[in-house]
Amino acid sequence: MKNLSGSVLILALCVTGCSNPTKTEKSEEKLNLEDHDAKVEFRRFTYSLNSNNKQIEVLLRKINWIDVNKEAKQFGLNGANCYKKDDDYFFIIDAEHTLNSETALKAFEQIKEVSKLTKNLKAINQPFLTSEAALERIYELDQKAIYTPSDGQLKTAIGAHKRFVWTLLLNEDSTLLKEYKEVHSMGKAWPQITKNMKFIGVKDMEIYLDGYRAMLIMDARPGFDMAVSGPKWQELPQEKEWQDHVSKFQRIAPGSSIQEKWQDMEKL
Fold it and tell me: Where does the record locate the signal sequence feature (predicted)?
């Protein structure tokens, strides 16, 4: 997980943040092998699992996610991946547009390695993912419609891209959380900030919430280098103003740098 240059914060996030600049390569993942064909519609479902049980981490790390994604296509899934930060696990499941959270999870659990994982988790009394626990999406670049977590987010494939997945903790204040959602709601993003993201090479961006933890998915053009583009992004029009505007939502120490805010999630 490497260096998440300040600019990254940019709109994506009212959330605020980035990761250590010295870690940029780690966070900049290789091009997704599961890229969908251009213009193809699909549904995205995200889930979170929080536990300090180290057995869960061991079990999840044993999974061959490349094999999972190959087999997933037999069950109407375009791709599935898991990301980790501390005791939080973030699952992203892309499925055919006809599926909902319930049917997508049933399909996911038919995959051999996932089926085995489910049984192993049950043996240690650890609940796995449930359809009603699909996460709420509060922001999407160029969002045109609102979908419930159970219906799934209807998206259009963007072709080859380089993916970044980050997380940030928000202040535990229900009033601020409500405002945070409002600031990121459809049509509320500052036009210049959206323009900046596209200019710098961002193809898609989403923010999902699990309580007071935000997870951000950013897909950038192939070859995107945060170490190079980050500083340039941060200097674009209204970026500083935007960061000042969203700082009250962030659970960070006073004076923290942007690199200390958003944290990379490890792809398992």
Answer: none
Q: Are 1 and 265 in contact (CB under 8 A)?
A: yes
d(CA 69, CA 187): 34
- Judge contact between 245 and 10, C-beta under 8 A: no
Topology agreement, domain 6-32+136-151+159-267 and domain 41-133: yes
Q: What is the pLDDT of residue 38?
A: 54
For residue 204, the Cα-to-chain-centroid distance in whole angstroms is 11
Pick from 120, 155, 168, 153: which is nearest to 10 by CA?
168
Total length of the chain:
268
Please give the model's pTM, rounded to 2 decimal places: 0.84
Q: Domain 6-32+136-151+159-267 belongs to what topology?
A: Alpha-Beta Plaits (3.30.70)
For 41-133, which CATH class? alpha beta
